[in-house]
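Slide 14.
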Amino acid sequence: MVHLGLPIWSNKDWRGSFFTADAESETHLQQYSSVFNAVEGNTTFYGIPTAATVQKWQEQAPKDFRFCFKVPKSITHDSSLQRCDLLVKEFLKRMEPLAPIMGPMMIQLPASFGPQHMDILQRFLTRLPMSFRYAVEVRHLDFFQLGVFSDSLDRMLENYKVERVNFDSRALFSCDSKDEIVIEAQRKKPRLPYHCQALSKTPLLRFVGHPDIAQNDAFFEPWVTTIAQWLAEGRRPFVFFHMANKKWSPQLAYHLYEKLRAVVELNALPVSPVERAPHIDATEAQLDLF
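Slide 15: predicted structure.
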């Protein structure tokens, strides 16, 4: 199985292009999960959700759906994984109701967190409960050089049964668009060397696309081969698709998933909620007003 999804499940710009035109925020997760079986869940990066919010997510998500929430930045960035035991305990306790439908929880580290901080990461991982799975995303360039730093990180993560996030933004940075949305995404997203690794049964890829959907094919082609290999090895990969303009992320996912289906025997994605919505002829709709 491939766990496929986007960084978020709620976007008002999807109304009429992915969601039904009348979709309200209360139905977004339901409509999203009718197509995709996983989501990054970036919302937790900015704060710990309320108990009521977690309960709502639990009630709305299908049993085969998987959340891959990010650990809050108050832990990863503000505290640099140090002196944050109470925050970690509060966050994990709050997320407990979702444990049965949780994929790897992402620990996204800032670019300033380098090899000199490996002992801090190790102490942090040692204290994490094994009731959840985890994946670490590093952004310091030294971790992407072949040699001792990358190898040491991978061995440590594998020892703790923690995955290393594969982050690929090459397609985004190959674009020379003058679109302000693209320029802003290039400013915010890390520009990292190509890295491909699977340390557990659930490898995780975050793919940041080119705004022209067809231009992503060449960048995703190596991942098609890799994902096919992961599946042949019995792994269950998570694949998340990003775009500078989030409005078109669902279309990117549909497009690149078909590239994967050309190589691996997989079910087609369900059509989008807007395509499933009953079509009402404009003339009939006007007659209904009288």
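Speaker note: The longest strand covers residues 204-208.
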